[in-house]
Write a structure and sequence with these properties.
Length: 430
C-alpha cells in the first residue's frame, strides 16, 4: 500500500497535492521540484494553535526546517512566531512582515553582528547556550543602550532515542548548558546589567515518535524553575523546544504521537504544577516545532533518467540528488518513494534510487520495489522539512524550484536556480 496523506493522495491513478495532479505540475515546472500543500501546512500549524488556545502560549516555527518566504508568510499571518538560528533567518522573517517580538534566537554560535541585528529589532528572546555567550550579549546590549531578554538552553540529559545526529539533549552534546551547571549560569545571567532573565528552554532532539522524553525534560525544567524562584530568579516562560516526529511511512515504524495528545499531556502536567506550588499565575509556554509543521506538507518530484541493472543491484538513476535532499546521505534517513502515475504493465524490480552526483553517498532510497520506466516521475514523500533548506549547489547543480499548491492552483514560490546564478559572485584572477 502506498503511503498517502489527506493532502497527497491518488485520484484516478495519479498522485495529487490537494486537487492538483502532480503529473501536470512536473510537466509544467520540470523536475527536480519541491511541491508543498498550503492546506497541509495550515492544518499542521493549527494542530498546535488549537491545542494552545486560551492559554498563554506561543508557537515559534523552527524555520530552519523550511524557510521559503511563502511558507513563512502563511505561518506569520496565522499568528506563528519564529525560532531562528541566524541573522539571515531574521531577515527572512522581516521580509514577510513577521513580528520580531515573536522571534526567539537559538544556536551555539551567535556572532556580534547577529546579536546587534536581533537587538535592533527587539526580538522576544535570545536562547543562550553558554556563559561566554551571556557575556558577549551583555556587552553588545550595553553598547546599544538596550537590555536583552534571555532564556538559558538547559540540557536536561534525557535520551531522546533518535538518530545520534539529531539527538541534542545528552551530556555529550554541544548544545545547551549542562543541567548541573544551570543554577550557577542563571546566577551569572541575573547579575549582568544588560540582560533580563525571562525564561528557560530546551530542545532534546528531532523526529521523536514518543513524547515520554519530552515530558521527562519538562519535569526537569519545572524543578529548575522552582529552585530558581527560591533564589528570587523568577522565570516567565518555559520553552520545551521542538522535536516531534512525523510518519515517513517506513514499514514497522511506530507512528508519532499526535500533536494534540502530546500538548494535552504537557499542559496537564504544567497545570498540576502551577496548582500545587504556585498562586495559579500562568507561565507562558513556547514551542519550537519544525518538522511536525512542514515535514509532510511537501514532496520532492524527480524524473527517472536511467534504469541501470547490475549483477548485485539495480539502480534507478533519477534527476534529484543528495544536493537537493540530503537527509538520506546525512542521517541514513528513510524516505518513501512513490510513482506519480503507477504503471500496471511494467514488471516490478528491486532498486536503489540514486542521483547523478559523484559520491557513493548520493542515494535517496535503498532496496525499493518499483515498476518504473525512464521518463516516469517519482515523488519522494514527506520531504517538506530539511529538504530544500539543506540543499546545496554541489556539482554546480542549481537548487530545485518550489511550488505551493492551493486547491487546484499551483504557485511558483521559488524559481529554479540557473548555472549562471551559481558562479555570478566568482572572479577569475588576471
Ligand atoms: C532544529 C531545532 C528545532 C526544530 O526541531 P524539529 O525536530 O524540526 O521540530 C527546534 N529548536 C531548536 C533549538 C532547533 O535547533
Amino acid at each position: 500500500m502506498p503511503h498517502t496523506t489527506p493532502y497527497f493522495d491518488y485520484h484516478d491513478g495519479v498522485l495529487h497535492a490537494e486537487t492538483t495532479a502532480l503529473s501536470s505540475v512536473a510537466a509544467h515546472y520540470g523536475t527536480p521540484l519541491y511541491v508543498y500543500s498550503k492546506a497541509a501546512l495550515l492544518h499542521n500549524f493549527d494542530a498546535y494553535a488549537d491545542a494552545c488556545s486560551g492559554r498563554p502560549a506561543l508557537v515559534c516555527y523552527a524555520m530552519k526546517a523550511n524557510s521559503n518566504l511563502a511558507i513563512l508568510d502563511l505561518l506569520a499571518r496565522r499568528g506563528a512566531g519564529f525560532d531562528i538560528v541566524s541573522g539571515g533567518e531574521l531577515l527572512r522573517v522581516l521580509a514577510v512582515g513577521g513580528d520580531p517580538r515573536k522571534v526567539i534566537f537559538s544556536g551555539v554560535g551567535k556572532s556580534v553582528e547577529e546579536m546587534r541585528l536581533a537587538l535592533s529589532h527587539d526580538i522576544l528572546c535570545f536562547n543562550v547556550e553558554s556563559i561566554p555567550e551571556l557575556h558577549r550579549l551583555n556587552a553588545v546590549a550595553g553598547s546599544m543602550g538596550k537590555t536583552a531578554r534571555i532564556s538559558l538552553r538547559v540540557n536536561p540529559n534525557v535520551d531522546a532515542k533518535t538518530h545520534p545526529y539529531i539527538a541534542t539533549g545528552l551530556k555529550a552534546s554541544k548544545f545547551g548548558v549542562a543541567f548541573d551547571d544551570a543554577m550557577d549560569t542563571y546566577r551569572v545571567a541575573a547579575a549582568l546589567p544588560h540582560l533580563e532573565v525571562a525564561g528557560i528552554d530546551c530542545h532534546i532532539g528531532s523526529q521523536l515518535l514518543d513524547d515520554a522524553p519530552l515530558l521527562e525534560a519538562l519535569d526537569k525544567l519545572i524543578d529548575l524553575i522552582d529552585d530558581l524562584a527560591l533564589e528570587g530568579i523568577v522565570l516567565h516562560h518555559l520553552d520545551i523546544g521542538g522535536g516531534l516526529g512525523i510518519d515517513y511511512g517506513e514499514a514497522g515504524e511506530a507512528p508519532p504521537v499526535p500533536v494534540a495528545d502530546y500538548l494535552g499531556r504537557l499542559f496537564h502536567r504544567i497545570d498540576q504544577w502551577r496548582r500545587e506550588r504556585h498562586d495559579g499565575v500562568p507561565i507562558k509556554v513556547i514551542f519550537e516545532p519544525g518538522r511536525s509543521i512542514v515535514g509532510n506538507t511537501g514532496v520532492l518530484l524527480t524524473t527517472v533518467e536511467y534504469l541501470k541493472k547490475g549483477e548485485e543491484k539495480n539502480f534507478c538513476v533519477v534527476d534529484a540528488a543528495m544536493n537537493d535532499l540530503m537527509r538520506p546521505a546525512l542521517y541514513q534517513a528513510w524516505m518513501g518513494v512513490q510513482p506519480v502515475q503507477p504503471r500496471s504493465g511494467t514488471s516490478a524490480d528491486l532498486y536503489d534510487v540514486v542521483g547523478p552526483v559523484c559520491e557513493s553517498g548520493d542515494w535517496l532510497a535503498h532496496d525499493r520495489i518499483l515498476s518504473a520506466e525512464p521518463g516516469d516521475v517519482l515523488a519522494i514523500m514527506s520531504a517538506g522539512a530539511y529538504g530544500q533548506s539543506m540543499a546545496s549547489n554541489y556539482n554546480t547543480r542549481g537548487r530545485a524550484a518550489e511550488v505551493l499548491i492551493d486547491g487546484a492552483t499551483a504557485h511558483l514560490v521559488r524559481e529554479r536556480e540557473q548555472a549562471a546564478d551559481l558562479f555570478a559572485l566568482e572572479k577569475v584572477v588576471k
